[in-house]
Amino acid sequence: MEDIGQYIEALIFASEQGIRMEEILYCLQAAFEHDFTADEVNAHIDTIRAKYGENQYAIEVVKINNGYQFLTKKKFHPVISLLQLQRSKKKLSQAALETLAIIAYKQPVTKLDVEQIRGVNCDYSIQKLLEKELIAITGKAESVGKPILYGTSSLFMDYFGINSITELPQLKEFTESTSTIGEPSE
């Protein structure tokens, strides 16, 4: 029989979340029409974990929530978080920034409130901000239909380098005319 360890390694690698023992057994038994035991699979997983435990690899197999997953080793987390932060900063559109600003200053706020301020549909921007985890659902409003309330997340604080919402620039700081064109009138 082929090297089952490689198939187990491929299953763990291909799984977006941790893959449970039952899922591994199901896939192997369906593919090879052979009854594998959890002990057999565990032996292969131990071999895979030992292999990736060596210093030459930046990843390792970790058991999380009763499943196995490939993760970056902890010593590389600072560099990976810089990459993720840089990528997420690059991809915020003007519409997403405007939506995020409204949510940050008016939170908790409904989608309808945001749309009334912006004057356009905000479904896409809100969805993207939720995907990037810059905003979060904070509850439901007590108004008719109980619309979802949105607020900023802890990742928002990291993203903008602040400790709390009170550190956001005050709106009056934006409206003060510090740079004017022409002579000031008397």
From TrEMBL:
NCBIfam families: SMC-Scp complex subunit ScpB. SUPFAM superfamilies: Winged helix' DNA-binding domain. Keywords: Cell cycle, Cell division, Chromosome partition, Cytoplasm. GO terms for biological process: cell division; chromosome separation. InterPro entries: ScpB_csome_segregation, WH-like_DNA-bd_sf, WH_DNA-bd_sf. This is SMC-Scp complex subunit ScpB. The keyword rRNA processing does not apply. The keyword Cell cycle applies.
